[in-house]
Amino acid sequence: MLDQDTGRPACVPGRGHADRAGMTTLITDLPYGPKAAEVAREAVAVALHGTDADILDGARLITSELATNAFASGSPPLVLCVDRTTPTTGGLEVEITVTDGGCSHPAPSSPQAPGEGAESGRGLVIVEALADAWSLTTGTHGTRAWCRLTRNARLSTASA
User: Fold this and answer.
1) Nearby residues of 54 by Cβ (< 8 Å), 6 or more positions away
2) Do residues 23 and 1 touch, judged by C-beta distance below 8 A?
3) At what angle do helices 53-73 and 123-130 cross, to 10 degrees?
4) Hey, which of 57, 65, 116, 128 has its CA 20 to 30 A from 97?
5) Cα gap 41→139, rounded to integer Å
6) Residue 111: predicted pLDDT
7) Strand 143-151, strand 92-100: pairing
8) Band of the pLDDT at 144, cuts 50, 70, 90?
9) Which residues contact 30 (CB under 8 A, 6 or more apart)?
10) Interatomic CA distance for residues 17 and 28, integer angstroms
11) Class assignment of domain 14-109+123-151?
12) pLDDT per residue over 6-35, tens digit each?
């Protein structure tokens, strides 16, 4: 099990979009197939509409990698959960979780970069590079990949 942060529970599979006290949650099923990454990227764009391009781009890339891994290594169903929170102190926190029906092999002890000529295998290395915290838990009855992106409030130029 890779675990950079164990304090976050798994998303509850289902569908919905709720807005409550500075938090927005998007939960959606993903197709179990090659379109999983594309659908996941589009869902993240909807959930993070209006955010800075840097966090949106990072979130879309991470989500694409997690959805691709879930399809390639897991089993149905695939579920995406995106939590967008605006803390009272400002800034933005985004948590992305992709779950699947499970796999028969354990999570790697750490993400390993593939050889230079490899065409795949960079997903978790990308997630580790872009996320502020992340975890991967695998099992025969379910796999959960989770990460957090945080952006602090920007100081105004007047106070600098």
Assistant:
1) 151
2) no
3) 150
4) 116
5) 25
6) 58
7) antiparallel
8) very high
9) 36, 39, 40, 43, 67, 70, 71, 78, 79, 80, 98
10) 9
11) alpha beta
12) 333 344 433 444 444 478 899 999 999 999
Q: What is the residue type of 74?
A: G
State the burial class of residue 73 (Cβ atoms within 10 Å of its Cβ: 0-12, 13-18, 19+).
middle
**Interacting residues of 127 by C-beta distance below 8 A, sequence separation 6+:** 62, 65, 66, 111, 134, 145, 147
DSSP the chain: -EES----PPPPPS-EEEEETTEEEEEEEE-SSTTHHHHHHHHHHHHTTTS-HHHHHHHHHHHHHHHHHHHHHS-SPEEEEEEEE--TTSSEEEEEEEEES--SSPPPSS--PPPTT-SS--HHHHHHHH-SEEEEE--TT-EEEEEEEEEPPPPPGGG-
* Amino acid present at 155: L
Res 156: pLDDT? 43
Full-model pTM:
0.75
